[in-house]
Amino acid sequence: MLSYYVLNLFLYFPEDKSEYIPASITMAIFLIAALLTFRLIIKVSKREELKTKKMEEEAGQHKRETE
């Protein structure tokens, strides 16, 4: 019985379903922004990986030349 009252404090189901529209739009905007950010992080990470591999190869060549 107590859990029912506690849940009612946090759950809100409006009678007018048009109140869901702004929430849906906001959620879609944030979802798209999160996906774009995720893609950007992956792209930058791959670019950094290529730079690191290139630097490692140059360091390996320099080490071989000095031996």
SSE arrangement:
Blueprint: H1 2-10, H2 20-66
Commentary on this structure:
The chain has 67 residues and is mainly alpha-helical. It has one domain. The protein has 2 helices and no strands. The protein has helices at residues 2-10, 20-66. The protein is elongated, with a radius of gyration of 26 Å. The relative contact order is 0.05.
Mean pLDDT: 89
Considering DSSP H and I runs of 4 or more, what fraction of the residues is helical? over 70%
Low-confidence stretches: none
Globular, elongated, flat, extended or rod-shaped: what is the shape?
elongated
In percent, how much strand structure appears in the residues?
under 5%
Summarize the biggest pleated sheet.
Answer: none
Number of domains: 1
End-to-end distance: 80 Å
Structure classification:
mainly alpha
Total strands: the figure is: 0
The H/E string reads HH
What is the helix tally? 2
Radius of gyration: 26 Å
Gist of the model:
This protein is mainly α and 67 residues long. It has two helices and no strands. The mean pLDDT is 89.
